[in-house]
Structures are given as structure tokens and as C-alpha cells.
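Sample 1 of the test manifest.
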Amino acid sequence: MTDDISTASVDRPWPAGGSPAHARPDTPAVSRHYRSWLPTWGLIATKHLELRKRRVLMIVVAVLTVGLPVLVLGLRLVFHAVDARSYGPAGSPAVFAFLCNPLAEFGFIVAATLGATAGTSDLTDGVFRHLVTTGRSRLALYLARIPAGLAILLPLVAMAFAMVCLVTSYEGVPQPTVININGFSVPAHLDQAQLESWITAHPGQAGEAFANGPGPGPAGGGPVPVPTASVPTLRRDIATVYRDYASDEAGQLNPPVNEMVKIGLWIELYVGVGFIVGLGLGSLIGQRTVPIIVLIALEIIVTPILAAHVIPYFLDGQRLVVGIPLDQLRPAGLAVGQGGPGGGGPGPGRVLFGGRSALNIPPMPTWAMITVIAGWIVGWSGIGAWRMVTRDA
Amino acid sequence: MRAGMRAVPSVRPARPPAPADGWAVETHDLTKRFGANVAVDDVELLVPRGCAFGYLGPNGAGKTTLIRTLLGLTRADGGTMSLLGVPVPAERSRALARVGAIVDEPRFHHHLTGRDNLRLLAAARGGDAGQRIGPSLARVGLAERADDKVGSYSMGMRQRLGVASCLLGDPELLILDEPMNGLDPAGMHEMRTMIESLVGEGRTVMLSSHLLDEVERTCDAVAIVDHGRVIRQGSIDDLVRGAGNRVLRLDCADPAAAGRLIEEAGIAAGVASSEQGLTVTLPAGASREAVAEVNRRLVAGGISVYSLQEVQTTLEDWFLSVTTRLGEQP
């Protein structure tokens, strides 16, 4: 064996190539479109296809979004149709809140699952490296997942919510003309000026109805013996009185159309955030199970605990958990289902969705709510995209 | 002779002049480390255009890591590289637009059909890649199964689907990582035929493999890699022919006397006698005349020679002689 192992190619000709059919004299320009970080329609559509064809996942998503309203409302409609005396109308404010709140909660979990799947399926299926070797911008590959996943999720949630709204509006209980506050009847649909006039015209009734704050009164519906508030006091605090009145109204009447729109938007925001966080966390970790477990724990354990108790010296930290500002944004029409309207006291949350801060911690300013929610959306998108761009494929 | 043989240290070759149309793949001092382990060690690789090029090495030699580095799937720690004359990773998108690649085994979304998987990749490629889905599937013989889920495909079908995915971009260069892995003999034959046809169209096919026989049948040129270093590269004919000693097998009367006679004549690098006959190893670079001289000496010494046969050196023989793997065996 010789020690001379210098490359055989040094002074020897290389094998002749094949026909020059594919030999191009110069590299063709790659379109700007191809190198752009913006996802193309084709990228989004095919990612949507990839997610949509995951049969088990789609069944879970459909059951946990559309399934619950279909089941509950379907049974109530059937029972009412069969025996109207024993079973009341399918829709009511309570049923509305009963269905919308789980729609948001389950929607968040389903969204996190779908997001984690969208963020990891290419990796776990071994397709990621194929995609990278196409030369397409990795950022574009990541960003394509967002509309692709939301295009599945948001319509399903909208469909479920639309069913709830339709049944509540058209198959619901007749709307009362008065609302029950502390056992006293107060006309419904008053604005603040009209309420003030009504208080002036009915000092005795108003003084007892609004003496102890809002609330529909005892189960029996009878008046509650409470100290009487004077008309001047009520007129001086008319803003607070009106907010309490509006809360009671929201709990006893079907939400008006504009309130339904707010609730719908809020639920879509809620599940949208769940999807974005799931996507980012999935992309960061690179596998699906852990992000799903973490986000379920966040949604059903961590957030409720943080929302229920003020931790000394950690209030601002509590508010950084996305569920807190999202709960604070919860529209008034749903606040009833969260332990009573305005449970957390007055708050600027109502600025956006009419939220009543259905929390047991002091509400946060609107700018802070927006910042925290936007921070979670942008932050997790950035983390997911960064990991996608830097990951070894 | 090979047992215990160690690879000699690599010597950096003088670079051959670049062809007029440039190299399909070119690397200089390319290095990739994983902690203390150097997977790609100062690799100088030149792949000419329009041929089938084998990147040959034992398992763990760094073949896949080099390919992953070339394709931007992982970052190099040092050195430069270019694909089709386009520097990467600086102009990765421009380079990869003309490259098709399979890294490791071709894997796809099992819940999608073959066609849908190609749609996904065509969308990532953009341009008119979508229009090549049908022709690519037909080319690899998957047209009839294109609408079946990939989960129902055999390994060979997935390999073919991988090649189809490479063809979506009408590539000038195909980089195939172990394309024969998991294929049965018929599948290997199909893959070989396909590679030959791709090269026949003027495309360059660079494939990594540890299957020496397949590489010898498929490729025009090879680079041998061991412990992350390219230790030789060139056309297979040149490498094998220039590998070293000529070995002769003789069937003659009185092999022992014949062996002594040849040793005394000093014309052989080694002589060994066995039940199969006499094996004579001529020095490296020995000419055909040296073979005739062996015969003349024996006849002149009064020994009848019944047959004299030169043992052909194969790529496998040569590969094992220049890599370290045999030496590592217990």
C-alpha cells in the first residue's frame, strides 16, 4: 500500500457528464416572492389541507367546539317540542352563558392542541427538512401555519356560537319587560338618564332595589329587607347604580345583538390566543404532547387559581398570565356565568368588550390588558418563528 | 492483507482546475462539529456537473452531516461551500431553487396521499412546481398509487416518492442520501436506472451510500469519506486502477518451489501459498510486463504453469484498504 494518497482527481480528467440539457449557463433569478418571509396562498392552503386531513384531530376539534352546543341545544329543542309544559324553551340567558363560557374554555384547549399540532407536525413527520431544502424562507413556512390553523378553528367556533345565538334569539324564553333587582321590579332597557328619571319617580322602590348593590334577590323572588338608600345618594352615584342595573339586565335578558357580537369576538380572541400560544410553544419544544399538557394546566388550573386569589406582592405577576386580562375582557353578558356580574368590582375592562372583570383580583388598566394579550401573541409567535428559523432540520 | 490495515493520514490534494461550467458542489475547509466530535473535518469536495457522484463512507463517517450542511439544514462551523456555483448559505434560496434533495430516509405525512404530500412541497417551492406533480409521479412510477395514503406505501415507494419530490423543482442537482436503503434488489435496480436516466438528461446526481457495489454500478466518480474527512476522490476507474498492488493467482506444479523462485527473483512484493494455489502480489504500479516476467521465470525454472490469473481489484477492495473500519473490527 502506498503512502501516496493524494487525490486521484488531481491530474486526471473527471468523468464526462451527460447531455447538457440541464446545464444552464447562469443561475436563474429566484423570484422575490420565493425568498419572501411572507407566506404565499399556496403555502397556507396546503398547510390547511395537512391539518384538515388529520381525521382524529378534526373530530376532537369539532366535538369540543360545535358538539357541546349541538348536544345541549338539540336535546332542549327536542324536549321542548315533545313536552312543552315540562320543558321550557331551549334558549335562555342562563343557557347562553352556560354554553358560551365552556365554548371559550374548551375552545382554548382545542386551539392549543391544534396550534401545537400545526407547530410540530412537519417535524415529527419528518417533512420539515424536505420543506427547508426547497429553499423557502423558514419564516414564511412558520407564518403560513397561523392562517392555516385559524381558518379551521375560527369558523368552527363561529358556527357553534351562531347556533347558540340563534337558539337564544329565536327559540328562547319570552323577554321580560322588567328585571328583578333585590326582589324589586325595575323596567328593562333603560339608559342611564332614563334610570335616573325612574329613580326620581319611584324613590321608595329604587331606594330598596339599589340599597345593597346589584343582585336578583332570593330564590323565592320576594323583596329583601334592606336599608333604604336615599334618592340624592342614588343620583349622586348614578354611574355605579347604572352599572349594577346593566349587570342585572345582562343576567336576566338575552344579550342584544351588539352584545352577542362582542361575545363572539371575545370567544374568537380567546381561542385565537390559545392557538398562537400552542403553535409557538409547540414549535419551541418540537413535540406536541408537552405543550398541550402545559396549556391545559394553564387554562384549567393555573389561571383560575391566579384569578381567584391575590398573591401578596405578586399581583402584577398574576396579571401577566394571559388568562387574567382575557377574563377581564369577558363581556358583561357572560360575566353572570362567572360568579355574578361585576364580581371583581369596577374596572376599565369594559372599554373594549364591555368586560366586567369577572375576577377576584383588582382589574388592570385597559392598556395593560392590551399589552399583555398582544405580548403573548407577538411573543409566542416570535419565539416559535425564531426556533423554526434556527432549528437544525 | 487488509486486516489490520489502517488508513494513512489524509494529504490535501492540489485542486484540479475548475471546469468551464463550474462545479456542481464545491466545498473548502468545510467543518461541522458536534461538541468535541468533528463530524465534517476540513472537507474539500468537488463534484463535477453532469455525472453520478458517490459520497462513500462507512456508517458514522459524516456523510449525512455533510449533506445536511450543504443544504442548510444545519450550520457549518467553518469553511465555504457552493451549490451550482452559488454560495451557500449566503444565497441559499437561489441555490436550492435548482437543487432537489432527500436527506436520511424520505419521510412524508402518512395521513396524506402521495399527491397531497407533493402539493405541500410544490407550494413551498412555488413557481411552476405544482404543474410537475403529475409528471414527477409518472416518472417514478407512482401515478397509479398517487392518491393512496403514504402510510400504505412500501419503503421503495416512499423512496420513489422522495425522488418525485426532488423533481418538482426541475433540479440541475439532486442530492440523495442513501437512496438504496431499504430497497429490495428490484427496487435498487429501478433506482439505479432512474439515476442513470437523470444523469442522461444532464443533471448531476450526488448520492451518499455505504453500499459499495451499488455505488460502483451507479456512479461515475466518488469521494471516500472516513471520520469526517474526504480521503480520496476521483473517477472510480482511476481510483481502483491506481489503488495499489496487482495480485496474481497461479495454479502451477510445486507451488512451494515456485514461491521460492519468485521471491529470489525479487519481482514480487509478496508471495503466499494456499490450497487455492499461489498468490503473488506485485508492487504498486507494476505493469503488464511484470505479469509476463513472473510466468517467464517460472517456466525458465522448470515449473509448469497451468493458469495465471490477475485478481481484479473492486471498489470494495479499495474502499476497505483506505478506510479504517476493518482495522476497528475485533
